[in-house]
Each structure stands twice: as structure tokens, then as C-alpha cells.
Design brief:
The protein is of the alpha/beta class. It contains 16 helices and 14 strands. The protein folds into 3 domains: 111 residues, no CATH class; 53 residues, Alpha-Beta Plaits (2-Layer Sandwich); 201 residues, Rossmann fold, CATH 3.40.50.150. Helix 1 packs across helix 2, helix 3 packs across helix 4 and helix 10 packs across helix 11. The chain binds S-adenosylmethionine.
């Protein structure tokens, strides 16, 4: 790596901490260094992420530049032969010790964490073939219910393609795509995407509803809803209403819904292959606090569901206290809801009332999904 680029990567690492996540520092720094070529920016990003992915093997007392070099060598060795890293070594170094109390840690998951993440797109319905051809370097996901998913392995800046500007595809992780497929909203229904964020799943829900019916999209972060509105305009999604909601008992509407999706804030352990710095900044306290928020969100939305309506709870994390713990809590609290059997979008023959998407089997984020129907 050229010393000039190495120096920028080392500076970004030095500025990154829990309050300043590496991806935001990186984005700001690359914007500031406007003379960098695209391939140079990409090289810097890779160096920063490789450093955090292999952080457990490094000595943080040593200068970041030397550590980046060590991390890159480890990554190359791993790419050549992942089995050269023993299960014990990965268990000790790939994640902090507290994780084994909370997550089903397997060698397969740890190897998935050390691998480069895959980039997934979601094409408008029935357009995956055409978009994959137009972009090149694209692979279709045809063995699952996720027929609009495309894996992109090229190096173009996808945000600059005409297809992106015309709203013909979105960048969306394949496991996130699976969540809206599980929701299975019908055209003409009324849904609530209670933690809509920047609208990733909202756009997909609307697509599945063929832009018919209505989706309430709420979030507590105004800036996220602002981004959501930009994305809906680009994707030509009109059947939604965006409102602020802080997750409290005071609901944003008296509407009774056919379905509610709570894609809850979580510890994000399922995204640690994509966002490796978070392994070293998140802790057991986050898991505990976020599980409490998730329990509250589910309890608060429950009364807004029509008899016969659906409640879907999803999190991009793999801790038992969130996921199963929260789902069990909700079931104990609300006897007027019955577990719903879901078709696993990655394996349609598999019917389950709790779905786990592990990165090693889906190639996407780790996620947990549970769903219930309100008794009639
Ligand atoms: C997992 S993200 C949602 C991602 C989004 N559904 C998507 O597919 O792009 C969780 C969202 O919950 C929001 N949030 C956090 N705490 C909340 C609360 N107490 N009430 C409502 N929303 C909250 C966050 O702002 C964040 O946008």
C-alpha cells in the first residue's frame, strides 16, 4: 500500500471509537480528501475494515500503520485457506470473550466473520435479470424465495449508475430482503413499519404491495425519515405516510393494522462481518438495554393490530437475550397473540415459528425473525 494512503487509513483508525464509528469517520475523511481517486478511496476503506476485522490478532500499542500491514497479511492467509486458522484461535481472537455467553458461537460463524462481506442488491420485481445484465459482474439468487436479489461483485460506483437513479434497484442485504418476504403484505392492506429508519424494508414492503394500500412509516430519528423520503421519491413509492414516533405508549395513529413490522434497534451482532469495529465497541450492557427497548416496542404496538392481523419482529443480531428472550417475553405477556408459522425464504420447505439467518448460511447479515397473529 502506498505510504500516503496508509497514512490516511491510520489516521482514520486513530479517530474511530464507540462515539465515532469507523464507517462515519471514513466517509467524512474520504469526502474531505477530494483529490483521491476512486480506487485509492477503496483501498483505504479496505485497509480500515481489514484492521478491525483482524484487531484481535494485533497489538494496539503498536503503530496503526504496522498493524494494518499485519492485518492485511492475515486476511490474505485466511482467503487462501480459512482452515489454517484453528477453531480455538478464532474463538479466542475473532470476537470478545463476553460474546460466548450471549451467542451460539460456532467455527462456521467465526469464519464467516473473518471473510469479506458480500454486496447484495434488490431489483424491482421481475427485473433482476435485466439489472444484473446491465450492471455486469452480477449473480442472481434463484434457489430461494428471494428472486429479486442480486449479488454484485464488480467495482463500479453503483450509486452513479442510471439504473440506481431511476430507482430500478436498491442496495439491500439479502437477509433484510428476507424479512419483508416473511411479512408477506398484500396489495390494499394497511401496514405499519414501526422502526422504518431510512426505509430499506419499507421500500420492499411497498413493492410487495404493488404500491397499493398504505404503510405508516415511523422512526424516532427525524434525519432517518428525511433519507427515507429521498429514497421513496427515487423508487417511486407513494403508498406511505412518514411520522415521528419515539417508541413510547403514545402511538402515532389510532389506525388498526393488518400487519406491523418491528425491525427493532439492536446490538447489531449479525452485521459484524460488515462492520467489524462494532465487535470491539459493543458490550453485554448494550444487549441488555436493547432487549429492554425491543420488549417495550413490541408491547406498545400490539394493541394497534387488528384481530387476525400480523406482528413481525426482526433484529439484525444473534444474541439470545434479544431475539428469543424478547419473543418469549412477548408471548408470555400477550396471550391474545399466537405464534405464526413462517416459510424460511432461504429454504421454502422449512416451516418455523422462529427464523435464524446466519451469515455462514445466507451470505448476508445474521438476523432473527419471529411472528404472531392476533387472535380473532
Ligand atoms: C434496525 S434499524 C431499522 C432499519 C430499517 N427498518 C431498514 O430496513 O432500513 C432500527 C431503527 O429503530 C429506530 N429506533 C431506535 N430506538 C427507537 C425507539 N425507541 N422508537 C422508535 N424507533 C427507534 C432507529 O432510529 C433505527 O432507525
Amino acid at each position: 500500500m502506498e505510504p500516503r494512503l496508509l497514512k490516511i487509513a491510520a489516521e482514520i483508525i486513530a479517530k474511530s471509537d464507540r462515539e465515532h464509528p469507523a464507517d462515519s469517520v471514513l466517509r467524512a475523511e474520504l469526502k474531505r480528501q477530494s483529490s483521491l481517486r476512486r480506487d485509492e478511496s477503496r483501498e483505504i476503506s479496505r485497509a480500515v475494515f481489514t484492521y478491525f476485522r483482524w484487531f484481535g490478532w494485533l497489538d494496539p500499542q503498536k503503530p496503526a500503520a504496522g498493524n494494518i500491514f499485519v492485518a492485511q497479511q492475515l486476511a490474505e492467509k485466511f482467503a487462501r485457506d480459512p482452515q489454517r486458522f484453528s477453531d480455538d484461535e478464532l474463538r479466542a481472537k475473532a470476537v470478545p470473550a463476553w460474546v460466548s455467553e450471549s451467542v451460539e458461537v460456532s467455527p462456521e460463524w467465526l469464519r464467516a466473520l473473518q471473510s469479506e462481506p458480500r454486496l447484495w442488491l434488490r431489483a424491482k420485481r421481475g427485473q433482476a435479470d435485466r439489472i444484473a445484465q446491465a450492471l455486469g459482474f452480477s449473480w442472481l439468487e434463484s434457489t430461494t424465495l428471494l428472486s429479486d436479489a442480486i449479488e454484485y461483485r464488480g467495482s463500479e460506483d453503483l450509486f452513479r449508475t442510471p439504473e440506481f437513479h431511476h430507482g430500478e434497484f436498491e442496495l439491500q442485504d439479502i437477509s433484510s430482503q428476507a424479512v419483508s418476504v416473511v411479512c408477506d403484505p398484500k396489495p390494499g392492506e394497511t401496514w405499519w413499519d414501526a422502526c422504518a429508519g431510512e426505509g430499506g424494508k419499507l421500500l420492499h414492503l411497498s413493492e410487495l404491495m404493488q404500491n397499493k394500500g398504505l404503510i405508516w412509516a415511523s422512526d424516532r430519528a427525524e434525519w432517518r425519515l428525511k433519507k427515507l423520503k429521498q429514497r421513496t421519491a427515487r423508487a417511486k413509492v407513494f403508498n406511505y405516510r412518514a411520522v415521528l414516533w419515539d417508541g413510547s405508549k403514545r402511538l402515532p395513529t389510532k389506525t388498526k393494522f393488518d400487519g406491523v413490522l418491528v425491525d427493532a434497534p439492536c446490538s447489531g451482532i449479525g452485521t459484524w462481518h460488515r462492520n467489524p469495529q462494532a465487535r470491539w465497541t459493543a458490550g453485554a450492557n448494550d444487549v441488555r438495554e436493547l432487549a429492554e427497548i425491543q420488549r417495550r416496542l413490541l408491547t406498545h404496538v400490539a394493541d394497534s393490530i387488528k384481530p387476525g392481523g400480523k406482528l413481525v419482529y426482526s433484529v439484525c443480531t444473534l444474541s439470545r437475550e434479544e431475539s428469543l428472550g424478547v419473543a418469549d417475553f412477548f408471548e408470555n405477556e400477550r396471550k391474545d397473540f399466537t405464534r405464526l408459522e413462517m416459510k424460511n425464504p432461504f429454504n421454502p420447505a422449512d416451516l418455523a415459528t422462529r427464523l435464524w439467518f446466519w451469515p455462514q448460511s445466507t451470505g448476508g447479515n445474521g438476523m432473527f425473525v419471529a411472528a404472531w397473529r392476533r387472535n380473532s
